[in-house]
Every structure is written in structure tokens, then in C-alpha cells.
Recover the amino acids of this structure.
């Protein structure tokens, strides 16, 4: 079995921020926020779009999860 990180196919474009409502976000380049997955208590939660790219993290003790963080351009 090969390791999971080598690329074996060409890239596939998933989305392009070309709709009119994206224009307010355009500075130098278009912003195309990516999805992020949160797995908690046997459930899967997916965020689809945000004003940048988001992520979830656990507390320092590791007991609480699902704290969101967002990176966006200004």
C-alpha cells in the first residue's frame, strides 16, 4: 500500500469565487474560503464558506473542542 500523501492525479478545481456577491471581498485577489470539518461525539459538522478560512481547535486541557478560529484578509 502506498502512503496517503503522494499526489497521484492532477488537481481538480472545487470552486471559483466568481459570483457578484464575492466582489466586496476582492482586494488584490479573490477570497475563496475553504470548508472545515469538525468531528464531535460521533457527528460530523461541515462549514462550507466563510470570509476567509476557518478551523476548529480544542482547549488547552483537551476537554472541550469545537472552538472556532477564522483567518481573513482586511
Amino acid at each position: 500500500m502506498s502512503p496517503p500523501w503522494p499526489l497521484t492525479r492532477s488537481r481538480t478545481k472545487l470552486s471559483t469565487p466568481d459570483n457578484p456577491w464575492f466582489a466586496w471581498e476582492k482586494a488584490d485577489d479573490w477570497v475563496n474560503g475553504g470548508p472545515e470539518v469538525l468531528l464531535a461525539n460521533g457527528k460530523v459538522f461541515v462549514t462550507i464558506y466563510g470570509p476567509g478560512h476557518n478551523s476548529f481547535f480544542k482547549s488547552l486541557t483537551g476537554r472541550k473542542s469545537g472552538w472556532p478560529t477564522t483567518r481573513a484578509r482586511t
